[in-house]
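Model: Ready when you are.
Researcher: Fold this.
Model:
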Amino acid sequence: MCSLCWPEKVQWSERNEVLEFPQDHMVYNDGPLAGEARCRHCKQWFAYVCDHPVWNTVCHWTLIPIDEPSSGEAPECYAAVARQAPAWLSMLEDRRFGPPHITAGVLRPPGDQVPCFD
């Protein structure tokens, strides 16, 4: 992972600046958007779940690093990985007041598991 995709402090204004979200690695269903993304710079893969606390204006992204992409499975396949993850990237994308504003950081659970993947 590089300092762009695994930042201590986010320095980008649009998630697509750093991460690419290949269509063939997205899972569309009635639940949260999920799938796999890859850093444009270091090529690290992440499993993600995106939820909408405020529909179509605020998105909460939870990303965990993975070794390689899956075969397009639902996010349940990452539950075991998430339970073992020492940290994850939590990203809030706010589009309520004009251009997107990103707030994110690397979180390390105190003996807990990564949320959203179970």
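Researcher: Now this one.
Model:
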Amino acid sequence: MITRLFIEPLRIGKAADIQGRAGDMSRAGRKRKINADRRPDGKPRQPIVDNLQQVARQRMQHHGLSAIDARSDLGGYPLGRLWASKRISERLHEIGTAWAKLRWRYGQIMGIMLPMSRCIDWQGPGGRSLADEPDPEEIGTVKTSMHKAIKALSFHTPTIGMIDRVCVADEDPEDVSVLQRGLLALSKSRGWQ
């Protein structure tokens, strides 16, 4: 009994000493930064600017873009990167964007699920959303436009797949010349836009 009385105060004192040191340090050897913005798990948050710089750096290395183009919206999707790197003209970029809008709208009308392309501004003309329910006149117009565009590309079937992969599915092209030929054929064709 006597030994128990002498041991208990030592244990309490030692535990209090350990708790006092733990409040000053987050890990052994490192003091916790004061006024650091923290995530719910207690780790310091990284600034968002570093994330944007890291993405821009990766775009520059992987896609060969300039620093300005890597930070712009054009660097975020394959068609924009091709235009930013001068591998396609501005006109072909516009044609590719128009194709993506037409293809997406046609798929919506026909009940075909397509990915939401990053090259499309998802607000239509006059601020009207592209997701609105079509009227019968628009259905006829979209179907006619799609058939004219397919007819313009009928000379080479893989071209349609390439244009869809780059403009609609946001995949990088294997062969830019095939994409250029298809977009040029669409630009020469009238009545589909």
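Researcher: Key takeaway?
Model: The longest helix spans residues 2-24.
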